[in-house]
Queue: 2 jobs
Job 1
Amino acid sequence: MREETVDIGALQLECGTLLPAVEQRVTIYGDARADRVVLIAHALTGSSRVQDWWPGVVGEGKFFDPARWCVVGINVLGGCYGSTGPANPGAGAPEPFPRISVRDMVRAQQRALAQLGIERLAVVIGGSLGGMQALRWALDFPLQVDRAVVIGAHDHHSAMGVALNALQREALALDPQRGLRLARKIAILTYKSEELFNERHERRPDRHGLDRYDVEGYLEHQADLFERRMDARTYALLTHAMDGFDVREAAAPKHAELLFVGISSDWLFRPREVRAAAQRFASLGAASRYAELHSDHGHDAFLAESDALAAILGALD
Amino acid sequence: MREETVDIGALQLECGTLLPAVEQRVTIYGDARADRVVLIAHALTGSSRVQDWWPGVVGEGKFFDPARWCVVGINVLGGCYGSTGPANPGAGAPEPFPRISVRDMVRAQQRALAQLGIERLAVVIGGSLGGMQALRWALDFPLQVDRAVVIGAHDHHSAMGVALNALQREALALDPQRGLRLARKIAILTYKSEELFNERHERRPDRHGLDRYDVEGYLEHQADLFERRMDARTYALLTHAMDGFDVREAAAPKHAELLFVGISSDWLFRPREVRAAAQRFASLGAASRYAELHSDHGHDAFLAESDALAAILGALD
């Protein structure tokens, strides 16, 4: 594994603002000269260290084994894990940090990869916000992408998704630290499912004897982990980027194949909407397929159900 | 319509605390001496004025027409619309106001009705927290209830429901006023559905030209309405009462018939769980039936879809 921070220079953002100095934090597992490069796009709170947050998918003996693939992760533009963003704005950046879009993220990634000599991606893959990036890659750079795998995401962020993000930002505005905790808890509910909570927590009392239910203790624990690693401004910025995502008017990508993976119990990105997006692109003439990951985990199944996901990805080979 | 505040004296709560002086705010539409009395139990933020919040169901020409029924509404114990609760604790009440349960609410109602000379209910009906009360009535006073109609509720509050309420209380704790607004917005998302939001708001920009989506403006408007009429301590107390609801160990009620009504698009109280509750009581020997209200409105369909609901209730006659 090697990491570097790639200076891609100035970037004109979709909102019209110029970011004068943009860095992209890149992590590479395996040989960068390998035939098969996979770019793994991370979700709202991930990082370029894709093996850290997707250990069931990346690593020795896993689907993306660095012995067979060159696996690349890049912290998104706007992120707080080494790339330019509100937590690391760089010299001359406007204050406050300007709104960025999924398209901006992908353009920054494309330039960073070009500087590293990577011009072609066998696969670009991601879940949630990562899936939005994978789709945007196929639409904006279709000749550089062989296959885009869009998991737990589709062709727009829904009104319900927009509303949920808005409430999370409202929590942040109430109190930067305690609000970040509350925002994470709201988000976690959208990443899980009723079935999973019934199985894991049911109505059991708190395991430490506190005056609360077990599920409340679980959410506190998740908030503890989160506030140590996330920055409120970054979180607000990246949720805005999700909100803005809508490619329903896009033409079919030339060359790039699309695989949409819906998750049966996902209520943030409903499987029927994922299927509809796959069908919409197919109807436009794209090589666009749909597969369903059957899981009770909810949206997070793309992280939790590595084996089932690998079985679906196996059809790629 | 006539209203009165009924003093039911001291009430021993399920938590063990004695409330020394309890009042119940009662609103009666129609003739209290009528054969057929229906008690309409309100949900989390309702009041005894049931025609105000359920105008499609109560009133001239509606299913519960005061010319044919004596329609009774009672503000729940713990509520802020005239009954004893944190906003109106009464002399000698412990501070802070003690936790109350759905059973406590129903016991207070039963005593208030007894003082008004009402010993028998042809129907007790409610949605959400009101449905929990209707079921509790049938279980605790089965010989006084002919039929209990439980809409958009079932036999326990789920781990997901508990978690959602906990996050709303956490918002209140961050800031009493702005937190109450955020809590209401979280709640509204659980009362609506993705389908409804897609239809009503889609990804349209704010109708007043503000830098937000239409759905965000809708939520602000709902919060404006709410903060004028709700009290944060009341809201926290009543959500705790919901969280505590679990009658899965209850025996079948003698005499009282049960009708459970699930809402097809309800994700707070899933229709399959409502059906399961109806079947559980039936398997214990109760006269327990299930009907489904087909609607895209989500949980709030019990308020929004009066005609479809009346069609289901029509089977009662």
Job 2
Amino acid sequence: MKAKTPSESLTILTDYVLPGETNPLDSLFGGELLARMDRACGIAAQRHAENIVVTASVNHVAFNKSVPVGSVLVIEAKVSRAFGSSMEIYADVWRECMEEKKRVKVNEGIYTFVAVDKEGNPIRVPALQPETELEKQRYDAALRRKQLSLVLSGRMKPEEATELKKLFYDN
Amino acid sequence: MKAKTPSESLTILTDYVLPGETNPLDSLFGGELLARMDRACGIAAQRHAENIVVTASVNHVAFNKSVPVGSVLVIEAKVSRAFGSSMEIYADVWRECMEEKKRVKVNEGIYTFVAVDKEGNPIRVPALQPETELEKQRYDAALRRKQLSLVLSGRMKPEEATELKKLFYDN
Amino acid sequence: MKAKTPSESLTILTDYVLPGETNPLDSLFGGELLARMDRACGIAAQRHAENIVVTASVNHVAFNKSVPVGSVLVIEAKVSRAFGSSMEIYADVWRECMEEKKRVKVNEGIYTFVAVDKEGNPIRVPALQPETELEKQRYDAALRRKQLSLVLSGRMKPEEATELKKLFYDN
Amino acid sequence: MKAKTPSESLTILTDYVLPGETNPLDSLFGGELLARMDRACGIAAQRHAENIVVTASVNHVAFNKSVPVGSVLVIEAKVSRAFGSSMEIYADVWRECMEEKKRVKVNEGIYTFVAVDKEGNPIRVPALQPETELEKQRYDAALRRKQLSLVLSGRMKPEEATELKKLFYDN
Amino acid sequence: MKAKTPSESLTILTDYVLPGETNPLDSLFGGELLARMDRACGIAAQRHAENIVVTASVNHVAFNKSVPVGSVLVIEAKVSRAFGSSMEIYADVWRECMEEKKRVKVNEGIYTFVAVDKEGNPIRVPALQPETELEKQRYDAALRRKQLSLVLSGRMKPEEATELKKLFYDN
Amino acid sequence: MKAKTPSESLTILTDYVLPGETNPLDSLFGGELLARMDRACGIAAQRHAENIVVTASVNHVAFNKSVPVGSVLVIEAKVSRAFGSSMEIYADVWRECMEEKKRVKVNEGIYTFVAVDKEGNPIRVPALQPETELEKQRYDAALRRKQLSLVLSGRMKPEEATELKKLFYDN
């Protein structure tokens, strides 16, 4: 299977924040943002895998800035690394400010999807070939995140988490 | 401020999985589940804080089992630890199987909320006093998760993450 | 078939009142509340019957207090009596007031569901064994309500509605 | 205030039954139908009152026939009687069968609305002047239903419920 | 196949404008109105064709007046002409003003639907027999609109668009 | 005001077709597509105008191919011409076919938006400077469409529609 670049899976979901999607502070509900990011990341994963994909996990979504009702919200999702049948997807989220004539980064999130066949069995996906500097950083960090996830769930022994240990021993 | 127990914030959200909330495999969409968990966790945080709360981050949501359309889905959310103005909330998710006459754990997730006043400024919340064995385990693990989050975002040096380091040095 | 207690079917649906579910007075729409109660009552009926259930009728839902947008709404539904293949479900509805640190009863409603097989034919459900004082009162009243419903729809002669007649003759 | 006829408040809500509104038998969810009827009845009440109205209670909604997904559903709502600031609204529900080239009555329901000012205080509405035979029957029955509701909620003594008592004594 | 009148397909969709359907000016979103008109026109087409129908095109929808949240919106749709398997549907849209005690025309739109069998193949529909003066005007104009649509899409040569040319040559 | 290029307003809305948005043939409802196109076109108009915009009209939306449930749908909207305070927006719609590994054009539509201030009064927008061959074609055609719209609504005499007349006289 030929490796693919992150830009081949780039998915852009631009949409309004409607009044029915807000919390009592008149800002976008966290849960609605999680759902939109899941759809954008799922489409990016499907473009990379060219198969059905299902959400496997969500990691490290940080809500840094609130998004007022009426905003235009832009989600850009790209595959950041592939591992066998699973893919890590990175989503960057901006809101556009009409008044300030610029866009502001409000959030980012990392999702993991698995490619499956019609019976739900995992199937292999192409490897990822990062191109830009940021894509390479995220590609490297994805391995640490994967080891961390395996250690925290008890499926990997800490001493085997080579990439993760460097973080602590090297300091 | 008097400490509170996890059971004081217990929030139960029982609802159907409707046809409009499913993926191409006729199972609950990951994004819809994330949104429901966010609402249940937000209400648990609000009950603990007795103030407005907003989603700060989502960590470690794992989708272990798919949830077919028509299922009854039960989310139980409780505060697992409080840190100043932020709260970690643990959500356990089950689906009920009419045929098998039992309920099956399908998912769990950890969300962080922050209590704010009407201008959106953080305000302190009560400490958490865990009671059951599981609540105590989750309370202890919450500190490691918090350090991990601070290290990964560059707001804490790895050598200061005392709880986290034990995980690696002790092995 | 072994009788069941009301608490075996207790179903709790806790959720926010979102801006998309309000009337021109910024309170929860009656229709949205009816839909939520229907889902909670349906799940309670399904837990009692361990079979598919469909709504048969709605009786005596009284909207006593309005529920402002942003409220946390709690619906608690339990089977109050079973008659062959049909079940009467009682739903109590509260809203939580963050400011007043208490919960307020806003509504109650009574729904009837019928258990059916996959072709939609009625099938028998377990009898109900009430336990608390309130459960016993509701169990007794359910018979009067059933007779009333039969009389009003012309399927029972008033003189045969023994329980109902007492209401009038005894006074 | 000049009396009005039922036809002045006639409200027709024709719409599809969409896949997102169905139960596990692929028929319209009871709760969704209740919500649609509430909106149609609310508009009929508002047309009669020419003021804001809020749902006060729901009585005697019977689900006689299931409504398959894809059906065209027609709700016709008219005021059946007015009492001071409250109005009883009668809704008849049909589904249209493309194949059988006819429409079938599937349901009917009775709602009560109250007219209020912008602070939510009740305000008087015009009296109702029924015209057709069916409108007159429903107008008469509305008084029995009102007495019944008052008796059941303890706000009227059974011996004062003159219309209701006839139902039992005369037989 | 016997011709039908426009009134045989008259479809009325009366519903509220809810807060979840509004733009930043607190008026009904254009897209939501387009969707409601599509459903009303689709039902009118289905009543005329007595078969499944799908949207073929939308022409000349003009948003003349904004519709504030909380309004009652009335859509009346009728077939304006039939051509083989396609039907032109005319939708008139009003909002009701409680304060001004009248209804105001806010919008009108023209949709084209095609009748299809279960495999999606076009099937013939009855001809239309207009009755009122307005129905006759719309029936005549429909032919000009059809020619215009064919010319603009390159499927008819301008010199063959006899009805359309009159518009320019006669002036 | 400096002119802008179409690519400065390019808006991409990529999202799934969910089961709750389908017609009886299990394809995307026309009305849902119209609503999504309205949101994408509205954001493109807002990016061009840097002000609030409202839908003024919809012209010539043709539904050429059905879009099955589960598809990924991509809408790309760009301003095609500006006239004072109004903007014509062109939306191209594709669906992605996982199996056929390509994307297919399914639809296109033309919307008109008007830029307004917070009181709803029209305000001027920048002129458009087309760049590509297709953008230039659409820019020219936009004037004919505008004249056509004015003629059909009686706001321009046919003999003054210079661009439009060429279409007929030159043939």
